[in-house]
Amino acid sequence: MKRSNPFPTFRRQSLGAIAVAIVKYFESVVRQALWPLIILYMFGSGADSFTKIVIYITLFAGSFSILAAIFRYYYFTFCVQDGKLNVKSGVMTTKNLSIPFPKIQRVEFEQNIVHRMLGIATVRIETAGAEEEEVEISALKIEEAELLRATLLEGRELQQLDANDSEHIHEDQLIFSLSLIDLIRAGLLRNHLRTAGLVFGFFVGMYFQFEDFLDLEEIYSTYLPNWYYSSNMWSGFVLFLPIGVILVILISLIRTVLQYFGFKMWRKHQGYQVSYGAFNRSTYSSLDKKVQFLFWRDNLLMRKLGMYSAAIFQAGSVALRRRQAIQIPFCYDEQIDRIKSDIFLEYSAPQDWSFATHPAFERLLLFRLGFLPVLGFLWIHWLNSWSYFDLIWIIVWMVLVVAWSRYYTRNLSLKMNDSYLSVEKGLLSFKRWVLEYPKLQGATLSSNPFEERRGLATVTLHSAAGDITFPYLLRAEAERIVNKVLYRIEYLRTDWM
Amino acid sequence: MLEKFENSNIHVDELPQLEDIEYRSISKDYLWVKILSYFIRIAVIFGGYFILAFSMKDALPLWLRQLLPVVIGVWALFGIFSLYKVFKSKGYGLRQHDVTYKNGWLWKRWTTIPYYRIQHCDVSSGPIERMFELCTLNIYTAGGSNSDLSIPGLTTGMGNQLKKLILQKMGDDEEE
Fold first, then answer.
1. A contacts of B141 (beta carbons < 8 Å)
2. Among A79, A81, A78, A61, which Cα is nearest to A69's?
3. Would the pLDDT of B1 be above 90?
4. What pLDDT is attached to residue A183?
5. What is the tens place of the pLDDT at every residue in A305-361?
6. Residues of A with CB under 8 A from a CB of B
7. pLDDT tens digits, one per residue of A265-286
8. Given A37, A435, B34, B40, which residue has the most CB atoms within 10 angstroms?
């Protein structure tokens, strides 16, 4: 039954849009630029005048953002008329946008903590085709946002029904959801290296501040064994390593739980929808025909339990040429199989032809991850004081790098059959990509001087959701892969979206 | 009555081979376009050096002031040599169903795009290119800048001809 139009005349969004814009400005400025200065101001021996000036200028500039937010709010109006979403915006230059219902691909919501406090949501409407872009309504009351989404999607379906009487309205099906226990498990099992990098970077960044107000030499001599006394940053790193490990795991865990809280995944009409987030609640949708490739990964711990984290990569609107991925933080084999069968018609695992990386790739990894960092480490220690025990770290590092390079190279593989292609990479964290040939836009063969000398090449396959690269193949094999891919694209002539 | 149905194997080695593509070189005048652009950049750098040397001659030691122009000169000569090598590496090939562009002296690259995947194409020409009546053919796909092609050093006539051919091929492939 067709519902009555709740947005028949042009109207403004919720006043909360002004609050959202102001908070967004300060959040981006503080997060990206100001946080080191604020920490220095609070923990330093007294912020210098430069720091104070920068902070005051930023706060002053913020007052202009309040004015801009008020103007943008006043001049942004929208309505639903004659089977279209109409938007008028712009302060100096007015922009009029009309999007017919059939062009609307997705209507998504996003709520951060400010949205939730005010009971509003940002509504993002994405369209297909080369002419249109995404429309964003910064703040609507959540009930109105739901009404708008229902009006637009129902209008789209009704128009499509008129065009094709054999269609039927699809019932949404909840595929799976993640409980708090699932999220805690996901947080503990996740790859903590990225968080470790952030924590390590923070420690290095703040080390010299710590030196000013802590007597580090006394701390080292108190807590480090006598045979390991070495007065430098490396000692601090050794001393705080256990605390650092616990901190890394805790931060990863809290981030995962907050980011994916309340995760639910639905199967919708020819697509998926996921929603998650404790403070920033977001809803993302995919359409099967826009999916470019499927990606999933696991690590040593997850592999033992048969768990994966996955992502469905799809193309955005053609004009934006933007890549979008639906993230699934934690799932099992059955969810991966379900997604494959929904997205790929008559999926069969590509196993007919298999290609591996040349062993020369191992030498490249050794050079990049072993030789260069050790050289840098030795140079830094040559400039500062160092202890012979630091050599132990070099030996440990080199042993790890040799083992990692060898097994990483052996695990690299590219497999093909007549319809699908898969790439597998990784050691501690194992990654897989699967795609169909018609989704590809083209292919590139490339070689650096090292590869050229050894008759090797790298293959890069281009899709509308990103590139997939496979390095250090024998040149003849790389050409065979590209020949096959081009043949399948040109022979099948299937639309990529 | 059933039509005779065949489904014979297709061996990968029987497919059209990338190595069989016949590449065409770009116009020799393009080398002069690149050298001219390069000279303009070098002139700016030399100009910057002279201003620096003149305004800070007391701060910079004599040996540094004498060494810098030599370093810039050697770097400029190497730059011209590498421009030549990169120019020689550029080429494009047209097949029935796709277009390939190759370039790169030390880091080599061959990118192939089927006509069926081309979103649109256009021809552009900078001020120095226009002096030599040259242009660049830009081919866009949905794969982002990594899969877009820019074929420089084409004469204006050739650029427009190739654009017309590609648009025609795009239309033919859609109809098929």
1. 441-442, 462
2. A61
3. no
4. 87
5. 888 989 998 876 544 445 578 888 888 888 899 898 888 877 888 888 899 999 999
6. 130, 315, 318, 321, 323, 353, 440-449, 452, 460, 462-464, 466-467, 479-480, 482-484, 486-487, 489-490, 493, 496-497
7. 988 877 888 888 887 788 887 8
8. A435
| Mean pLDDT across A194-220 | 66
Q: DSSP code of A403?
A: H
Tracing tokens 């080292």 back to the chain, one arrives at A220
pLDDT over 50 at A166, yes or no: no
- Tokens encoding A47: 């912020």
Q: Is the pLDDT of residue B33 over 90?
A: yes
ipTM of the complex: 0.85
Which residue in A460, A480, A497 is closest to B12 by CB distance?
Answer: A480
pTM: 0.76
For residue B172, give how far its alpha carbon lies from the nearest alpha carbon of chain A (Å).
Answer: 12
Return the minimum-mean-pLDDT range out of A33-42, A370-379, A450-459: A33-42
Q: Mean pLDDT across chain A, nearest whole number?
A: 80
Name the closest residue on chain B to residue A478, using Cα atoms.
Answer: B18
Find chain A residues with C-beta within 8 A of B114's C-beta.
Answer: 442, 486, 489-490
Average pLDDT, chain B: 85
CA-CA distances (angstroms) from residue B61 to A372, A475, B45, B54? 33, 52, 19, 12
Please name the member of B15, B108, B112 whose beta carbon is closest to the beta carbon of A442.
B112
Cβ–Cβ gap A442/B143 under 8 Å: yes
pLDDT of residue B13: 63
Residue B112 to residue A479, Cβ atoms within 8 A: no
For residue B116, the chain A residues in CB contact (below 8 A) are: 489-490, 493
Determine, for residues A487 and B19 on separate chains, whether the beta-carbon distance falls below 8 Å.
Answer: no
Tokens of A92: 């100096």
- How many of the other CB atoms lie within 10 Å of CB of A184? 14
In terms of CA atoms, which chain A residue is nearest residue B117? A441
Task: Please indicate if any CB of chain A lies within 8 Å of the CB of B160.
Answer: no
Name A76's Cβ contacts closer than 8 Å, sequence gap at least 6: A12, A13, A17, A87, A88, A89, A137, A138
Taking contacts as CB-CB distances below 8 angstroms, the residues of chain B near A463 are 143
SS (H, E, C) chain B: CCCCCCCCCCCHHHCCCHHHCCCEECCCHHHHHHHHHHHHHHHHHHHHHHHHHHHCCCCCCHHHHHHHHHHHHHHHHHHHHHHHHHHHHCEEEECCCEEEEEECCCCEEEEEEEHHHEEEEEEECCHHHHHCCEEEEEEEECCCCCCCEEEEEEEHHHHHHHHHHHHHHHHHHHHC
Tell me how close the Cα of A343 comes to any Cα of chain B, in angstroms: 20
